[in-house]
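Might I ask for a little of your time on a matter of protein folding? What I wish to show you is a protein chain and, alongside it, a tokenised description of its three-dimensional fold. I should value your view on which stretches of the chain appear to form regular backbone elements. You will find the record immediately after this paragraph:
***
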Amino acid sequence: MSDARDGAGRFPRVFHVAILLEVLERLAFYGAYVNLAVYLSDTVGLSDVENGVLLGWFAAARAWLPVATGALSDRIGFRRSLLASFALYIVAYGALVAFPFRVGAWCSVLGMAFAGAFLKPVIPAAVRRYSPKGRESLGFSAFYASVNAGSVIGKTGAKIVRTAVSLRMSLFNSVLASVLALVLTALLFFEPGDREGDTEVAGAAGDKAEKPGFLESLGAAAKNPRFVIFLLLVSGYYLLIEQFYQTFPVYIRRQLGEGAPREYITLINPAAIALLQIPMGWLTKRTPPILAMTVGILVGSASMLLMGSLPTLAGACGSFFVFAIAEMIYSPRYYEYVSSFAPKGREGLYMGLALMPFGLGGLVGGVLSGRLIARYLPKDGVLQPLHVWGTYAAIGVVCAVCLGAFGVVTAVASRRASSSVR
């Protein structure tokens, strides 16, 4: 039987359902995350340092847990993983609202990470598995667009409810979105073999060949030095991107006051991506992946520097727009590059491994953020935003230089290997 990805070049129904679920999950996630640092500080009462530590471990957990859950999803099936994810999300978001104190916050936030671990590898793996042959780039572009669509809707909803009711009640948006996603998964998300007589797609998910164990698959990935070094190097980029959630909510509130429309400012990034991703993708499609990612990180560093150099509403808006350009250059090529390492049947594991840099960058960034905020953005005292954002910019430049060097070394090694074969 032919692979479903060859069938008339059309994206199957399971692909479209996966994209819809990604929109809902991102709606819930960003609707909570956009104000999480402020909620933990003001409502829960965590100190700046503890706030940063919790957000750092949150980033690490939601990135590192998918290594195991990604491999598990390859075995139990994507549908069961999604059902587990949304059920856990409902509990975690609900608990965050119901128990606004230290222990409740730690359990709820880490519960959100655990819930996300069952979903994060599955959607990009489904995109790779069910994109028609030769249309994988389009599939990942649709995936990235869905991430940003969910972000726009979630942050807008959070702003509306926070203004009309309260910050705490805005978290109910995330509960409702997760409930809807759970229902849609149960009713609509079916892969080949999930139900008898479903022949819409076949091939990848219908392959019953014995799959290697988790440790064997993980060991094989760990023995690829190019893959491991690459993941370590790009962690700096994710340290930068996490600062829009770990540092920015506290920074903008202390710099410009409670009246600053922080949710709307954060909408600039996903809105710009939604409008400009296709033309940017066309402009950069012939750029080698490593070069594109290096340029993206440098642009991201410029965004950090702009935020610190111009501590005004205009500076914040400009920073989010510049970082949107960085993401449009970097992100689609990242998922495409990582997916090229994934053997058939192990897509979930490799998409889980693709999240490792998020965790490392987020953990280091969270710990660093808490300390920089406490020292340079105190609740009472002189604010020095350039010291904070300039530090992030310098980290980004170092990351870009290292990744560029990695690209040169691997390109030379590939040419030498090709020459020796001849």
User: Anything to note?
Assistant: The first helix runs from residue 13 to 33. Residues 294 and 400 are 5 Å apart (CA to CA). The chain is about 80% helix and 0% strand. Residues 1-6, 196-208 have pLDDT under 50 and may be disordered.
